[in-house]
Every structure is written in C-alpha cells, then in structure tokens.
Specification:
477 residues; alpha/beta; Aminopeptidase i, Domain 2; 13 helices
Length: 477
C-alpha cells in the first residue's frame, strides 16, 4: 500500500515545473510510431541532400498526395475552394504549399516553416586545376562550419550545370554504390608540427579545401595538363559539358554518408544535413497527414538560412507574401493589399529549426536550466539571437501561452531552451523575417548533437514529438 503524500509533496507537485523525458511518457505503440516515422525520415535525408533535391523530393510527395501547381491554376484563372491543396516551387530551391481551410483567409493562416539548405562545400566557378600529379577543384565552404571536420571524409558531388545553349544537366556522383567519391586531403601528423600549433579556426584554410578529383593522365605527350584533360574528357563523355560550363554551374560537395541508426538501442539517427531537414521533414509529413482544419494550413521551406536568408529563395524574399497573395486572389471575389496584410496579421507560425542538445562532453557551454536535452521532446525557443538578443525573434507571452496550452492539451512532450550561455552562444532562424510581416512566430524544433558537422545526431523520440507538435498546430482552430 502506497504511503499518503505529505502536504509539501502535494504542494510541490502542484506548483513546481519539471522537464519530462519523452521516452518515459510514451507507451510501446507511440515508440513504435516514432521508429516507423524515422524510417521515412531517412529517405528524405538520403534523397534530399541539397536544397534542389529536397525541393524536387517534396514536389513529388505533394503531387502524389493530390496537390496542384498553384501557378498553373493561376494561369487558367481557376478559383480555389475549401479542401483544395496547392503548391509552388520557387527557383527549384524553395517550396510553399497549403490546404485551403473552412475559415476565410482574413482570419489568418496556421503556418509552419523550415529551411532546406545545410552547411556544405560549394565548388567555385572556375574550379579545375592540375598540380603535382593531381587534379583538384577549388571550393568555397557554405555556412558556419569547423573546417577541420570537413577534411579526409568521402564526398559526393551534387548540383546542376547549365550549358551555353541553356540545357541544364543534373549532376549526382558518389551516391550509388558503384560511383567514385571525392575527398579533401589533410597534412600527415609526421609533418604537421607547425599546423598543430595553430588555432582551430586556422588549422585548415578555406582556400586550401580543394576537392581531389583525379590523377590519371590522358595518353598524349604533346599536351600540357594531361590529367586535367582526362578529367574533362570523362565529364564530356558522360555529361556533354566543357570547362567553360562550370561558369554557369551550381555544384555542391556533400558528405557521402547515408543516414544510419546510432546506438545499440537504435534510438538515434546520425546523418548529414539534419539541420534543418529534420524540421523540414516533420513539417512536410504533418501537412501530408493533417485533417482539414478550420484555418488554412501552410508550409514554407526556404533556402539560404545558413548564410542569412537573403536572396529570392530565402526567407527575406517576397516568396511567402507572394504565395499568400495568390491564394487570396483565387479564393476571394475582391482582392487588395489590405486583405493580404489582414491575413498576415491574424496568422501564426511555428518556425521549425533545430536547437543544440546538451552534450555531456561539452556541457559547460550551456545554462542547463535553459538548455535542450536529447530525448526530452520538441524544443520551444521563445527568442533567438545572440549576446543581448541581437537579431532575435522574440515571441510575445500571449502567443507562448497559446502554444504551451495546445501542446499540453495534446500530450506533446516539450521543453524550452536557449542556444548556449548568454555571452557564449546564439543564432538566428527564419522566424525574424516572417515576424517582420506581422505574423506571430515561435521557434520550435529538435535538439541535435554535433550541429553543422558532417554527421549530426538526433533522437527518434524528439523527431516524433516535433512531427506531433507541427500536426497539432496545423489542425488547431
């Protein structure tokens, strides 16, 4: 027979707040759902390693689910009605899609959003050179990385080459089992005494991160740079491209790793690009699974977040507002900028991006009372920014209370966090740019280990809770 709780124990249970472990809050059925969900997530990780590939993958999923191309409907002058599903792919690098709800758009939209670019190694416009019996490619790293983590690992080459006649050639070398892979070399420890004395930021120079491409010369003694010529011939034979075509190419070297289970219990996922494809996936999956709600539901997946969200495919662009304006135009008898602004001001968003999970090996960079832990569910981050909340999106208390109430009612296990100690950490998301439109925005995502490395780690139960949170929000009234 259990002992009766003391008055203090009852009072503590009533008044105190304790973070819960998601694994312990879930039954076997929910845990199985989490594992099953993450098997589908791995497909997105392996088939959508670049923003172009992820956009194309999402478009295929949307068309299969009955979504229609919004631009085609606009060109035909077809009106939208309740239950219609529409999408638009912007410059092949960002995607927006929506389900028209029962309520008028003037009452606002439930939006989720994430970014689909990740840190990587971009190939320069004039990249190929031969030196010391080798052919290499000049690169320029993209996003905030520890450069020393990105050498001596296998890379695959992804992207597009646009030829002088306007033909686009898709490139993907290294993902199939029979494909060659590429690497960036490093100095052997025997000769690295001076290198090892440098600061971590200087151990590997960005200008020296050159991709190793080949070493076999073309069999002709009359020409110079025979190895480079051989590489060019291989590329020409397979893709019909010449060296000048690199000037109008977008090529990315990304880690060649496949998504794998981590741990003997298989409770985690290790893969490249989980920042922010883990949140992109959960947003997409939630949109595909929701039942029609009162409000219109919308998802936006943007590019360029890792370098500031600029450009015509980033969150600072007009893409979201343009997409919403087209929906309003096709659902209302009358149309004006006033209607767009009213819609945005009455809309709400969960900006889905990852947070740094506490790593016990480096725990001192966190304020543990305000940090996210692996396995404790989806992370709600009231404000972003760094060192005094500069460049922050800071949700108001009322909206924070609304999301808190929703998650508690739906039994979603969640936690709150900042990104590191006040004067140590920080970072931005797409939230601030959507908030600038008048939308209530709150950051919400998955804790992650080894962020911005070639092999990031997430917990399967956190992925499941993020999906559940996005679905609950999209279906909310």
């Amino acid at each position: 027979m259990s002992e009766k709780k003391s008055q203090a124990e009852v009072l503590k249970e009533k008044l105190s707040y304790e973070v819960k472990n998601a694994w312990e809050q879930c039954d076997e059925v929910q845990i199985k759902k989490a594992f099953d969900l993450c098997e589908g997530y791995k497909e997105y990780l392996d088939k959508g390693k670049t923003e172009r590939e992820f956009s194309a993958l999402v478009e295929r999923k949307l068309r299969k689910a009955g979504y229609q191309n919004l631009q085609e409907l606009l060109n035909k002058g077809k009106k939208l009605k309740k239950g219609d599903k529409v999408y638009h792919v912007n410059k092949k690098k960002s995607v927006a899609f929506a389900i028209i709800g029962e309520k008028p758009l003037s009452e606002g939209i439930n939006m989720v959003g994430a970014h689909i670019d990740s840190p990587r190694i971009d190939i320069k416009q004039n990249p190929l050179y031969e030196d010391s019996g080798l052919v290499l490619m000049k690169t320029h790293y993209y996003g905030g990385i520890k450069k020393y983590q990105w050498v001596t690992i296998p890379f695959s080459l992804h992207g597009v080459v646009v030829k002088t006649d306007g033909t686009s050639i898709d490139i993907c070398i290294g993902e199939d089992d029979g494909d060659p892979v590429f690497t960036i070399t490093d100095l052997l420890p025997h000769l690295a005494q001076q290198q090892m004395q440098k600061k971590a930021t200087e151990v590997i120079s960005g200008e020296d991160m050159n991709l190793l491409l080949g070493s076999q010369p073309y069999n002709d003694k009359k020409v110079k740079d025979k190895i480079k010529l051989n590489i060019l011939k291989i590329l020409n034979d397979k893709y019909g491209i010449v060296e000048e075509d690199f000037l109008s190419a977008e090529l990315e070297a990304v880690p060649n790793f496949k998504a794998r289970d981590i741990g003997l219990d298989r409770s985690m996922i290790g893969a490249y690009g989980q920042d922010d494809r883990v949140c992109s996936f959960t947003c997409v999956k939630a949109m595909l699974d929701i039942q029609l709600s009162g409000k219109t539901a919308l998802c936006i997946l943007t590019d360029k977040e890792e370098v500031g969200s600029m450009g015509n495919t980033g969150a600072q662009s007009n893409f979201l507002k343009s997409f919403i304006s087209k929906i309003i135009y096709l659902t209302n008898e009358s149309y004006s900028d006033v209607l767009i602004n009213i819609c945005l001001e009455n809309s709400s968003m969960l900006s889905a991006d990852v947070n740094s999970g506490v790593d016990p090996s480096y725990a001192d960079v966190n304020d543990k009372m305000n940090a996210s832990f692996m396995g404790n569910g989806v992370v709600v981050q009231k404000y972003t920014g760094s060192r005094g909340k500069y460049d922050a999106s800071d949700a108001n208390a009322e909206y924070m209370g609304t999301i808190r109430r929703l998650f508690n009612e739906k039994n979603i296990v969640w936690q709150t966090a900042e990104l590191g100690k006040v004067d140590q950490g920080g970072g931005g998301t797409i939230a601030q740019h959507v908030a600038n439109l008048g939308v209530d925005v709150l950051d919400c995502g998955v804790p992650i280990l080894s962020m911005h490395s070639p092999m990031e780690v997430t917990s399967k139960i956190d992925v499941y809770m993020c999906y559940s949170a996005m679905k609950a929000f999209l279906e909310s009234k």
